[in-house]
Design the sequence.
């Protein structure tokens, strides 16, 4: 019995030793695994650092490119875009500013447009004839960039307005010219000057009409007053002298021709007298020569 107990104790001790050895092996493995994990983590961190460095380099390049683009944009923005104005010498009938904008907006950005309407007398004649539309005679177009305006004026001058045959205004030609150093304020000043001149002319015409009407009314009042005085004198039995007005009429063509003929006849008579005097003087020349050339008697 004691031997069995001893054998069991030895077996229990051996098992406990085996378990301890297994635990030690597992701990060593775990430690080795921990070292491997640390190495892997170090490798992953180095790769991440490299990636971060590459991303930083790419970001720096992108930022440099963006800065360069911004600088270029700022340069273009700082450069002032000077507008250019084109003069249109021919405007076809029924041509409106919207048509002009649609045709020229293809070549560049368009600003202001002004078309000069027809004269008032022409419009009155058209109204009498039954036409109510208002046509234009000339126009001005402002492009945002003067370089575009120069190119458009040089390329479209004396070319058809429409690109297709059935298109509207295809039979009309562009008549345009780029106005060098011309600004929109010059046009506005010119229009304001023309408007002031027109208003001044209208004021002078109105004042002239007022003067004529006042003169006519004053004369009417004077004539009415004179008629009253004449009637009063006739009632009183006084003699009334009626004034007569003498008017000199211009000479007719026949009277002018008759005067010319009379002058011609008078001049002819003077010429005849002069000829007779010359003939008489020539007849007396021989007698005078004999008298004055005779030798004295010895």
Sequence:
């Amino acid at each position: 019995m004691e031997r069995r107990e001893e054998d069991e104790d030895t077996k229990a001790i051996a098992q406990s030793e085996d378990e301890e050895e297994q635990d030690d092996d597992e701990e060593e493995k775990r430690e080795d695994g921990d070292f491997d994990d640390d190495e892997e983590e170090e490798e992953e961190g180095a790769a991440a650092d490299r990636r971060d460095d590459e991303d930083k380099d790419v970001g720096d390049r992108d930022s440099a490119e963006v800065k360069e683009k911004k600088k270029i944009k700022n340069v273009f923005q700082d450069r002032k875009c000077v507008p250019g104005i084109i003069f249109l010498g021919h405007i076809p009938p029924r041509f409106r500013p919207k048509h002009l904008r649609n045709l020229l907006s293809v070549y560049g950005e368009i600003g202001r447009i002004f078309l000069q309407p027809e004269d008032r007398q022409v419009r009155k004649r058209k109204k009498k004839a039954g036409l109510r539309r208002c046509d234009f005679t000339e126009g001005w177009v402002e492009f945002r960039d003067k370089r575009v305006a120069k190119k458009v004026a040089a390329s479209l001058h004396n070319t058809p307005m429409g690109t297709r045959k059935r298109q509207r205004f295809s039979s009309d030609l562009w008549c345009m010219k780029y106005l060098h150093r011309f600004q929109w304020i010059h046009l506005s000043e010119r229009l304001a000057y023309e408007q002031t001149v027109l208003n001044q002319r209208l004021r002078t015409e109105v004042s002239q009409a007022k003067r004529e009407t006042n003169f006519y009314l004053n004369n009417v009042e004077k004539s009415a007053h004179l008629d009253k005085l004449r009637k009063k004198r006739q009632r009183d039995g006084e003699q009334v002298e009626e004034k007569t007005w003498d008017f000199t009429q211009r000479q007719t063509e026949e009277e002018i021709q008759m005067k010319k003929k009379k002058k011609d006849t008078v001049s002819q008579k003077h010429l005849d007298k002069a000829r007779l005097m010359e003939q008489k003087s020539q007849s007396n020349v021989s007698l005078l020569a004999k008298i004055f050339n005779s030798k004295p008697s010895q």
